[in-house]
Amino acid sequence: MAAKTADAALEERWRDILSVHARTMCEIDRVLHPHGLGASDFEVLDILVSATPEEGAQCRVQNLVGRVHLSQSALSRLIARLEKDGLVERSVCAEDRRGVYVTLTRKGRDLHAEVLPLQREALARMLSG
């Protein structure tokens, strides 16, 4: 009986985590939507800002795959959309033709700086207490 109770408690905890995640992603989507971004778009920009602090620095797409919770194909589509919007640029790695680099543009850096407080406020609202 104790094992069943422990399993039920573990399952309930897991469902709570999923629920908090879903509500938080929806809230971030809501506050960023007027700026043309979603939560996953912001995550990519945020990782690029921290991974490539100097303007013009590149990040391999492969390095983003493990950090953004999207499939490789979904991440590729997201990066293509960000590129179309002028927020990132893609280039092929000279050493490894299969590798692709992503570079944050000035427009991408500026938009990230503009919406960062909105995202952090949404996190604080959704995750506090």
Notes on the structure:
Helices cover 65% and strands 10% of the residues. The chain is mainly alpha-helical and 129 residues long. Helix 2 packs across helix 5 (106-127). It is globular. The model has no long low-confidence stretch (mean pLDDT 89).
Main sheet: strand order:
1-3-2
Task: Please tell me the overall pLDDT.
Answer: 89
Distance between the termini: 32 Å
Strand content: 5-15%
User: Which consecutive residue ranges, at least 5 long each, have pLDDT under 50?
Assistant: none
Shape: globular
> Biggest sheet: strands, sense, closure?
3 strands, antiparallel
Query: What integer value in Å does the Rg equal?
Result: 18 Å
User: Number of helix segments?
Assistant: 5
Percent helix, as a range, is 55-70%
The total strand number stands at 3
Structural class: mainly alpha
Q: SSE string, helix = H, strand = E? A: HHEHHEEH
Outline the secondary-structure elements.
Blueprint: H1 2-32, H2 39-51, E1 58-60, H3 61-65, H4 72-84, E2 88-92, E3 100-104, H5 106-127
Antiparallel strand pairs: 1-3, 2-3
Helix pairs in contact: 1-5, 2-5
